[in-house]
Amino acid sequence: MVLSAVTAMALGFGFLMLAATQLTASFLIERRAKENLHIVDAFALEAAPLVGGFDAEGIQALLAEQAYLHTARFLVLSPDGTVWADSLSSLNGLRLAHGEVLDLSAGRATLSQGLHQAGDTWLGYYASTIVFDRSTVGIALMSSSLQDVFDQLASIRQALFSYFLLALLLAAALAFWLTQLIIRPINELNDVMRVAGREGFALRARVRGRDEVAQLSQSFNAMSERLQNLDQMRNEFISNASHELKTPLSAIKVMAESLLSLETIDEGHAREFLEDINGEVDRLNLIVQDLLTLVRFDGRQLPLQKEYLSLSELVFNTVARLAQLARRAGVEIKLELDEALYVEGDALRLSQAIYNLVDNAIKYTKEGGRIWVSLRHEGQNVVFTVRDTGIGIPKAALSHIFDRFYRVDKARSRATGGTGLGLSIVQNIVRVHDGEILVDSAEDEGTAFTVILPAAQDPEPYDEPDEAGGSQP
Ligand SMILES: Nc1ncnc2c1ncn2[C@@H]1O[C@H](COP(=O)(O)OP(=O)(O)OP(=O)(O)O)[C@@H](O)[C@H]1O
Ligand SMILES: [Mg+2]
To answer: Is the C-beta atom of 364 inside 6 A of ligand 1?
Structure first.
């Protein structure tokens, strides 16, 4: 970054410097030419009567005076370019064929100028026709050194070059500082990421300002936090699951051992033990099934078979499966179902959710209690409610009941066979159906769970509404 910034800057500055010196050079030389042409013109005017009158002495005197005055060489030439008089006298009688002289002798111009190199120095030649009595009687030529102009240009170039170096140095420093400003946070983030890759997501990247790197750091931090939470949840899940599985396994182990320790096994005894063992195995099976369901939800691998289905029918059938359990628990279930309410959903999973909610209501309601199960249409939605007059849920526990393995009263739940996975599964099922689940409860008064699902629009063309509607509860 520094290199490319400096290169770009050097190219820009270099070009600017070149243009500046070129412009200054042509400006200075032009200005000098204008002045000198003016001088040679005035000289020609003054020399005209002398040339016209063949006053050689007067001409020589004027030449000397002008040469002294302007520190230049002055010459008077014949109209065809032969030197008549030279302030330095060395060119007398020679014919000059310089461009500017030729221009005037050919009558192409009355004023002319040119640059000539003599050794190391540059000379400016300025010529003007000498007119006397309306005819050209000669040519005035002035030769003046431009060395001072070139010296001036050289010092300007030198100064510009110093500025150029200074600017380049400043640009490099600025570019370096800027890149450090950008790169340092990137490097820091990179370090944090490397540590995260090696040791886990405990470290957080520092967020400074609001630029892109700060946003990147923020995103990384959010991701780290989520991964950390997931990691923690996974550990908790495994330890809870192992614990839940251990309980029935220990019971089985104890019963099997006591059976084995008997010297003689009478059949009644053995049957009793085996029935208990069988019950614990059933329970293990249920827990494992629930765990698998949840794990599949997490991996989003749960295959859903969504279809257009009558929720009214599904609720009725599911509650019917629980009727015996309710009767044994001494609770009464009241059904209030609107007819022909349809949703797009997986019948098996929705039935599982309804089952879990009603099962909870039965489990957590004392003998003689009541449960209302209702299903109704509300706007674009279908609203399913299970309300009971049970033990209720304490306020502090309400935000946790959907957590895995969470039970308000562990001892009581275990006695009723609960693992604390039921509501978590219900919540997942509702979520994959784009629904919402709400809970409202008061301790010792009762609990109400409400599930809101989007109602299905029109029946699919291949569905036969007659059949679905005909078997309504
Ligand atoms: N209707 C209800 N009345 C009172 N408490 C309830 C009710 N439903 C759930 N709870 C409380 O919420 C906890 C979590 O319920 P959840 O269904 O997840 O677990 P569980 O019923 O204990 O076990 P599982 O359903 O896995 O067999 C329960 O242990 C209970 O304390
Ligand atoms: Mg439950």
So the answer is: yes
352 Cβ inside 6 Å of ligand 1 = no
Inform me whether the pLDDT recorded for 470 exceeds 70. no
Hey, which CATH number is domain 306-470, 3.90.1300.10, 3.40.50.1000, 3.30.565.10, 1.10.10.10?
3.30.565.10
Q: Is the CB of 407 under 6 A from ligand 1?
A: yes
Helix orientation angle between 422-432 and 347-363, rounded to the nearest 10 degrees: 150
Distance linking the first and last C-alpha atoms of the chain: 75
Which ligand gives the minimal distance to the CA of 359?
2
User: What separation in Å is there between the alpha carbon of 314 and the centre of ligand 1?
Assistant: 22
Cβ(322)–Cβ(358) under 8 Å? yes
- Residue range 266-322, pLDDT digits in tens: 888 889 999 999 999 999 999 999 999 988 888 887 888 999 999 999 999 999 999
Measured distance CA(282)–CA(272) in Å, rounded = 15
Nearest of 437, 430, 429 to residue 398 by alpha carbon:
437
Q: Which CATH class is domain 2-153?
A: alpha beta
Domain 212-298 and domain 306-470 have a common topology: no
The three-state secondary structure class of 330 is coil
What is the position in ligand 1's atom list of the atom closest to the CA of 365?
3
Q: Which fold does the domain 212-298 belong to in CATH?
A: Helix Hairpins (1.10.287)
SS3 287: helix
pLDDT in tens, 254-280: 999 998 898 888 888 889 999 999 999
Q: How far apart, in whole angstroms, are the C-alpha atoms of residue 143 and residue 75?
A: 8
The answer, yes or no, to whether any atom of ligand 1 lies below 6 A from the CB of 360, is yes
Going from the Cα of 254 to the center of ligand 2, the distance in angstroms, rounded, reads 27
